[in-house]
């Protein structure tokens, strides 16, 4: 291992600071009273409380899954605070009224909101420890009938829509962490694109976990009606703490006939230090339902952070001719672990799916791709193409691929390709001999490796992702 | 071309180097002035490729003794990329493949890095494209190579040409050609040698590392050195290479008179 490379990877986490804002924190522990507290704090209708309690009761009877290829000590669910909201001084009408301390946090994160939002034409719905603080561009979007707000606000203002769609793609009893989320989710985003509307800008949410030992359980729901289309961006960071924090979100996407939803994530939660102390457990359920004919759901994710990333953004291709896509880059370094991939469930005829997964492991980390392609009996002429590439940096990391393919219709065409490569000392020496230092070399190799995925990201995000990756892997080669 | 008054580019004295604890170079001495072409010959395992890699600063090799001066500057203090920027170029014996990185991107980054170091103008992708295509003509390379990944799927000969293309772009002051002739058919050898000759001038120097005389038919060396067991054991003119070709390397030990008598 060359020393120069070591230094590169071992740069400290840039977003590791705590904002001193008085938080309104629920006592630790989970029981029906806590759930009632959350529900009443949020002034929710009775049916939502029932939804939560039923989910909780199911959760009590479920067992934590153990099949994943990641290891962590047992989580004490009674040692988590399930509600933490920054105490607002008063109702906020505009960005100017947002707590300056909070705004400074965003500055440190490198997202000066108004400018960034205005310049980039991105509407940012800011989630700060589960409560949406401000939503920009809302009015502009409202002109074309788009609803983009926090899910709490949506529960108050559009209860019928929420009731109609919430839990229809990821039912409360879907899995252990989805059940937990359904019981205790505190906020998240809601996005509704009405019939025939193409969303004129990329919608973006910036998630951030601030309180130590608070779990973050957001819930995101995006509905695109007939012929609608939207591109949604999600970015995540968290300050550094020595303890692990659980992040168990649920994201549901619904695309009706001819609708198109593109969901992009750049995830940079705190990954723990170089010895594997601290970091986020990112256990998330993301699923899209391509319900209508010719609908399309596309997931793009760049996962660089978290101590553990464990998620499978999936597509249920129910509509005829519907399309599902999954483009992923997962980077692990030091002691990070990732078990991620997708599920493509083909139900409708002529459904097509594409999976491109790029795993990069450095340090002592472990990265797994796990994916399911299921062609059900009704899915005539379904097609899938999967490509899973792994890259190893150094000799102490691991990469694994677990493809599951289930075909129940013999007109299906399913392709799977996989490769493993390694950045070696000889490649770096070759670059060096042409005057290019290790940092630039790694960045160039990695960007080449991830090109097909980065091409899927909106331009702004692609630039950010490229930088993030180089930063993340600095010094890891040798 | 030998000119006793030209500047000393490389001065190596009593160079010892090890790889994984095994000593490969055991006291190499060589002086190279600008304008000169040197050939280092020797059997496999004699240390000639190691010598080239040590000059370029390969991290697997450790210099344990001796001095290594390039243009009066102590090389051992410089990282490989700094040596490259200072003007040392190694054409690799086995150029590595770099999947996913387009050749033109790689070439441009290398070119601009070295240009930047020299305080000269960097080229944008369009300007560079014109520039590199000109250089490719010199080596009769198909422009398709620009869009392919660096060395990926290149034949042995294509890889070697790509090395010399890089030499043409970076215009090094000292170029080390490590077995550039191996794996080349006679036509490719002629093209590559012709390219190298056109790049050679009074301000730069070349060190050719080779087994065979064959390359030296096309690129005429001023000096031929024979390396054995990590040291240069004989230095002479071009005729030494011919003698080795005729008699084999053992001949050096059996009859030292012959070189004097050959034309």
UniProtKB/TrEMBL annotation, chain A:
Residues 207-449 form the SUF system FeS cluster assembly SufBD core domain. It comes from the Bacteria. InterPro entries: Fe-S_cluster_assembly_SufBD, SUF_FeS_clus_asmbl_SufB, SUF_FeS_clus_asmbl_SufBD_core, SUF_FeS_clus_asmbl_SufBD_sf, SufBD_N. One of its GO terms (biological process) is iron-sulfur cluster assembly. It holds the Pfam family SufBD_N. Residues 128-199 form the SUF system FeS cluster assembly SufBD N-terminal domain. NCBIfam families: PRK11814.1, sufB. Belongs to the iron-sulfur cluster assembly SufBD family. This is Iron-regulated ABC transporter membrane component SufB. It comes from Nitrosomonas eutropha.
From TrEMBL, chain B:
One of its GO terms (molecular function) is ATP hydrolysis activity. It comes from the Bacteria. PROSITE patterns: ABC_TRANSPORTER_1 (PS00211), ABC_TRANSPORTER_2 (PS50893). Keywords: ATP-binding, Cell membrane, Membrane, Nucleotide-binding. Residues 10-254 form the ABC transporter domain. SUPFAM superfamilies: P-loop containing nucleoside triphosphate hydrolases. Signal peptide: none annotated. Transmembrane segments: none annotated. InterPro entries: AAA+_ATPase, ABC_transporter-like_ATP-bd, ABC_transporter-like_CS, FeS-cluster_ATPase_SufC, P-loop_NTPase. Belongs to the ABC transporter superfamily. Ycf16 family. NCBIfam families: sufC. This is Iron-regulated ABC transporter ATPase subunit SufC. It comes from Nitrosomonas eutropha. The lineage of its organism: Bacteria, Pseudomonadati, Pseudomonadota, Betaproteobacteria, Nitrosomonadales.
